[in-house]
Amino acid sequence: MSRILIPVLGFDRTGGCRVLAELANAWIKRGHKVVFLAPGTSPEPYFPTKANVLWADSRGLVSEERQAKRRPSARDNLTSLFRGLKRIGSGYDIALANHSLTAWPVALAPCGQARKFYYIQAYEPEVYTSLRTARGYVLATLSASSYWLPIHRIVNAELYFHYRNLRATSMVPPGIDLGVFKPGPETTKREDCVIIGCIGRPEPEKGTAYVLKAFEQLYRENTKYRLRVAYGNLPHGWKHEGSEIVVPRNDRELADYYRSLDILVAAGTIQHGAPHYPVLESWACGVAVITTGYMGATDETAWIVANRDANAICQAVKEIVRDPGKRRARIRRGLELAKNHSWDDVADRMLAVFANLEPCRA
């Protein structure tokens, strides 16, 4: 049995926290002890976890009860994690950093014989680069510098083995809950409409604007096309009579959303080859995927389109509609690929890295 300590800056609703909660649950199911260490200013975990949570304050006092409910400070949170790790880290076999800022206290705090690892998830290498402020510059510098710390780095896609100044030799892909994200019952194909979907995101690099532009073009040609945008986040003032916004409240409703689609479009403009949950989850739900090239997308699993090209999205949609045989074949291959991303498989791959590799010293 391994004793695994996961320091976090705080619990939130992001995909990164979901990954940690799911990994912890899978490891506990295998008999390992898993504990989260969080600053006392953090809220309680949003994603259900069977792991215990310990709370640290800036003096390094660690408790099973949250000690502070004041507004968090990045400096205090990092101090809390460093001093908390210094106090309890030697009681664990593994300390797992999971963010460019948590990497610093994990690397610098004395933790006895605990082996130190750093799981770098998608998009993290650029998460602070768009902040055009002094604070943003400091955070971006700390983030980039974290890739030189003496911790064994694990990435979640081969893209990041050699990306900017990031170097890594171990890869563990993301997981999905295949008990939730799965195909629905067989139904008769709709003939009167084609439902296109995307995840609404305001950041330009997420590519939502290109999906909207493609839909507008398709709808002008034929009103059978419909658009369902998950979560909204549309450009200010954008609306269309052929579109609707769907706001899933949990994973089961998100899976229902995917299954309501004929086609999911993921048109992000950066870090192609990175994992993208809407793509993986759509494959698992048996939905045809159009993408600019996220992890797992090939000519056998998806329709890969040019970057920032609404017309290419239109042409891919039309091909899917007029060639049902190709659509069924690629959906079938996407389902096969998704089965490799169960949380049990992902958790085992991470445990194998923990067991077989020594922390790097570079």
- How many helical stretches? 10
Separation, N- and C-terminal Cα atoms: 28 Å
Biggest pleated-sheet summary: 8 strands, mixed
The CATH architecture of the largest domain is: 3-Layer(aba) Sandwich
The overall average pLDDT, rounded, is 91
CATH level 3 topology of the largest domain: Rossmann fold
Strand order within the widest beta sheet: 4-3-2-1-5-6-7-10
Low-confidence stretches: 358-362
**Count of individual domains:** 2
Keywords:
Rossmann fold, 10 helices, 362 residues, alpha/beta, 2 domains, 33% helix
Briefly summarize what is shown.
This protein has 362 residues and is an alpha/beta fold.
Please give a structural write-up.
The protein has 2 domains: 3-175 and 343-356, Glycogen Phosphorylase B (Rossmann fold); 194-340, 3-Layer(aba) Sandwich (Rossmann fold), CATH 3.40.50. It contains 10 helices and 16 strands. It is of the alpha/beta class. Helix 5 links the parallel strand 11 (194-199) and strand 12 (225-230). The strands form 3 sheets. An 8-stranded mixed beta sheet has the order 4-3-2-1-5-6-7-10. The chain has a 6-stranded parallel beta sheet with strand order 13-12-11-14-15-16, sandwiched between helices. Mean pLDDT is 91; it is low at 358-362.
Write the SSE topology.
Blueprint: E1 3-7, H1 15-29, E2 33-39, E3 52-56, E4 62-63, H2 74-88, E5 94-97, H3 103-108, E6 115-120, H4 134-145, E7 152-155, E8 162-163, E9 166-167, E10 170-171, E11 194-199, H5 208-221, E12 225-230, E13 243-246, H6 251-259, E14 263-266, H7 277-284, E15 288-291, E16 303-304, H8 310-322, H9 324-338, H10 343-356
Parallel strand pairs: 1-2, 1-5, 2-3, 5-6, 6-7, 7-10, 11-12, 11-14, 12-13, 14-15, 15-16
Antiparallel strand pairs: 3-4, 8-9
Helix pairs in contact: 1-10, 5-8, 7-9
